Amino acid sequence: PHDAAPTMARTDPDAEQLLYELMLDPGNENPYDGYRRLREQAPALVTGDGTLVLTRFEDCDTALRHRSIGKSDDVLDLGIGDEAMDRPGTMVDLLRDSMLFANPPDHTRLRRLVSSAFTGRHVEALRAAVTARTQAMLEALAAEPGGDFMDAVALPLPVNVISDLLGVPEADRLAFTPKVHALIAALEPTADRDTVALGERSGRELVDYFTALLADKRARPADDMLSRLVASHEDDALDEQEMISTALLLFAAGFETTTNLLGNGLHALLNSPDELRRLRDRPDLMPTAIEELLRYDSPVQFSARTVLEPVTVAGADLEPGRLVLTMFGAANHDPDRFTEPHRLDLGRDDGSHLAFASGLHFCLGAHLTRLEAQVFLTLLVRRYDPAPAGDPVRRPSFTVRGFDRLPVTLSPLP
Ligand code: HEM
Prior knowledge:
Blueprint: H1 13-23, H2 31-41, E1 44-46, E2 52-54, H3 57-65, E3 69-70, H4 91-95, H5 106-115, H6 120-124, H7 127-142, E4 147-148, H8 149-154, H9 156-166, H10 170-173, H11 177-185, H12 193-219, H13 225-234, H14 240-271, H15 273-281, H16 286-296, E5 302-307, E6 311-313, E7 316-318, E8 323-327, H17 328-331, H18 366-383, E9 384-388, E10 393-394, E11 403-405, E12 407-412
Parallel strand pairs: 2-8
Antiparallel strand pairs: 1-2, 3-5, 4-12, 5-8, 6-7, 9-12, 10-11
Helix pairs in contact: 1-2, 7-18, 9-14, 11-12, 12-13, 12-14, 14-16, 14-18, 16-18
The structure holds protoporphyrin IX containing FE (HEM).
Organism: Actinomadura rugatobispora
């Protein structure tokens, strides 16, 4: 809303300390106050090793859209904390050949192969199936007062939706989710050695699983996305490693994030009963409500980019290879973009957020996740009065913000 002065990047040891404190306190109840202090003190912070850390909305958006700034596979080696180390063989290796770590022209080719399945029109066709699943899960949870929302709905709903789309068999889907958790935990900027080792082992098992599954799709093609991926491999559109990385990326991205949107969203509504009532009375607010929940407590708190060719960002002259961190959680609470950013306002119309990033890597699953959130929230407010039922347990992660446990009681409305 306001015209902010241009940002001037600079070093600032105090602000750098603040950043590391945030990263070393994963699962923090309220990181937004820390982000605010960081943004006020040094909105474009240059760290000791030359990484540029952006906390303003406009600066993050500019960097994410800039053609001189892209991805590389050293993006995760932040080199901070006591446990800073090389992480050979982790997610970066496994996902190196997926669109997430690619630049054009590879990015364009890899994304185009699967993007048509994620358009609004294709995703809309899933509504009836998503509704049936959500309804059954909510009924089961309502029958168990004080049950864990994460376990009963937030995790199994998106796992089943993405697995149906990809063609991951029923028997395997939930069994592999802890391995994806372990893989992602190894990506934390401050992961310790054991976490990294477990992440690597889990990653190998996931790769073995998807290698076998893709072989099975080749032998017995079905009407699912992995079968189509195998067919494009046979047309030389992508190689073996790219095919496996793509399958693993879609499976992992398809639930890790949506799970936390559902959990963080419900938690925010439980803490703002007035907003929950407002949504019940005004179902037409559903589209802005979902965007607001994405903004208010974003499931993905930051991403990293690498400078590809010399460029000036927020007053910093950057050479190729420099890292740029875009702090989504901070940008989504920037008062220069959002009026009263710490207030949950389900009718908010300040403009788009960065929960899905922006530019070339804008979330491919945005329509799918919006559909799942819309179906869930509509059924929830129409049929139930949800109430907290015990202390939630936060997931000990800085990158992925969410809950491990969220006990609730769903009382059926008359
Ligand atoms: C990319 C967030 C759901 C698939 C991204 C990125 C973000 C994000 C921030 C950009 C990452 C970066 O630039 O480093 C979210 C959130 C979700 C969600 C907050 C739910 C609340 C999904 C779902 C899928 C999905 C359901 C389904 C498969 C992807 C893929 C990419 C991506 C494939 C990589 C796109 C590219 O590199 O071009 N997502 N996501 N996401 N997301 Fe999502």
